[in-house]
Specification:
This protein has 391 residues and is of the alpha+beta class. The chain has eleven helices and 20 strands. Bound molecules: 8-demethyl-8-dimethylamino-flavin-adenine-dinucleotide (RFL) and P-hydroxybenzoic acid. P-hydroxybenzoic acid binds next to loops. Residues 8-14, 31-34, 39, 44-47, 101, 123, 126, 158-160, 163-164, 187, 267, 286-287, 294, 297-301, 303 line the site of 8-demethyl-8-dimethylamino-flavin-adenine-dinucleotide (RFL).
């Protein structure tokens, strides 16, 4: 097979890149290890920044968001006996949208299928070749067990944090930064109406808790748990009781309504950046180049922002033989990446219990400042609601 851009990974980064490239007349082939159904069902992110929503709308992908997304003006930040609302729209002039990654993935798959683009699922053994040349290629085995080769002008590594693209960067010319956190999240998806109109982020001496949502009938909630936690030790009753304590059930008349748990999982937290995000004709985007702990709701938005830069860069490189934007891609993307890395680390370390009582006092002081000072609140609002794509 021959194409313009060979894309590894059919998550949001890979499929959105294929969509944006097609709008610019650039062809692509996407390969994916998992089945279409598996990728569609993965429960992950839930919040889109306003710049992500603008980009998706401009790309003709806004219909689902308009119909099923829920615009939120801000979030609640709380600690025992105090709950404060931060109004991002008032503070920073931008809102966020509750729209599940599963919904966005479905929109991207529908657009891809409607346009007849090539996405090959259930492939294996993807390998990247000749990245130092202007004719790189991929080899892999397709779903029928047949070896395949895709020749391209450029390769986009959109294969998440465990894919092969990252490993294809020469170690001697690559820097990696990493932070592993001493706690994880236990997340549940519950078939019950949310007990709040906007997300609640709760500091509690027993550990962080969060109340998010997917729709008027589906709630998403998280608890800080120790690394290595097994969901088998967390029957539904224990989860709801712990959430009720940490989220402040009964305080000022607020109640948490439990419901049937449809999904339960533990996710470890890691910050990770790979730099540069390019080697020769290989360009990394999304989780392939960086991950953040989920507390700042940045991972999916960063993937979208990368692709928003990469698509025009590849368009210029391939369509006009002009490599200026492609050469600038990594540095430009990394500016936003590091801002989001910092914000995600900051939200995480402000809200999770480390076990050190000094840390706890610093966290409470920071929370009081962020919820009482317009300057403090505006900083959080600007970062959470998202900086402009070109930041
Ligand atoms: P993905 O979605 O991981 O997609 C990468 C794809 O590459 C495939 N792949 C391969 N394909 C071919 N050959 C190989 N050898 C391959 N190896 C891997 C994989 O199967 C996969 O389909 O990365 P992408 O596209 O960069 O998208 C990134 C986002 O998925 C991620 O950042 C977010 O989900 C992070 N995240 C959140 N981000 C937000 O912006 N807001 C949130 O509220 C938020 N909450 C979350 C999250 C992530 C979570 N988890 C479980 C990681 C909540 C959770 C629970
Ligand atoms: C989610 O709804 O899954 C979600 C929302 C906000 C976060 C993390 C996860 O910070």
């Amino acid at each position: 097979m021959r194409t313009d851009v060979a894309i590894i990974g059919a998550g949001p980064a890979g499929l959105l890149l294929a969509h944006l490239l097609a709008a610019d007349g650039i062809a692509s082939v996407v390969i994916e290890t998992r089945s279409k159904e598996y990728v569609a069902a993965r429960i992950r992110a839930g919040i889109l920044e306003s710049s992500s929503v603008e980009l998706l709308r401009a790309a003709g992908l806004g219909t689902g968001i308009e119909a099923h997304g829920d615009e939120h003006r801000g979030i609640y930040l709380q600690w025992p006996s105090e709950r404060h609302h931060l109004d991002f729209t008032e503070l920073a002039g931008r809102s966020v949208w509750v729209y599940g990654q599963t919904q966005l993935q479905a929109d991207l798959v529908a657009a891809s299928e409607a346009a007849g683009r090539t996405v090959l699922y259930e492939t294996s053994g993807a390998a990247l070749h000749d990245l130092d040349t202007d004719h790189p290629f991929l080899t892999f085995v397709d779903a029928t067990g047949t070896p395949q080769r895709v020749d391209a002008v450029a390769v986009a590594g959109c294969d998440g944090s465990f894919g092969p693209s990252r490993a294809a960067l020469p170690a001697a010319r690559t820097s990696t930064w990493e932070r592993v956190y001493p706690y994880s999240w236990l997340g549940i998806l519950a078939d019950v109406a949310p007990s709040t109109d906007e997300l609640i982020y709760a500091w509690h001496p027993d550990g962080f808790a969060m109340h998010s949502m997917r729709s008027a009938t589906v709630s998403r909630l998280y608890l800080q748990v120790p690394n290595g936690t097994d969901t088998a030790d967390w029957p539904d009753d224990r989860i709801w009781a712990t959430l009720a304590t940490r989220l402040g059930h009964g305080q000022d008349g607020w109640t948490l309504t439990p419901g049937p748990v449809a999904d339960k999982s533990v996710l470890p937290m890691r910050s990770f950046v790979q730099s540069p995000m390019r080697h020769g004709r290989l360009f990394l985007a999304g989780d392939a180049a960086h991950t953040v702990p989920p507390t700042g709701a940045k991972g999916l938005n960063l993937a979208i922002a990368d692709v928003a830069l990469l698509a025009p860069a590849l368009g210029r490189l391939i369509g006009k033989n002009d490599g200026a934007l492609a050469d600038a891609y990594s540095d430009t993307a990394l500016r936003r990446v590091w801002r989001s890395e910092h914000f995600s680390w900051w939200m995480t370390t402000m809200l999770h219990i480390s076990g050190d009582p000094f840390d706890a006092q610093l966290q409470l002081s920071q929370l009081r400042w962020v919820t009482s000072s317009t300057a403090g609140a505006t900083g959080l609002a600007e970062n959470y609601a998202g900086l402009p794509i070109g930041f």
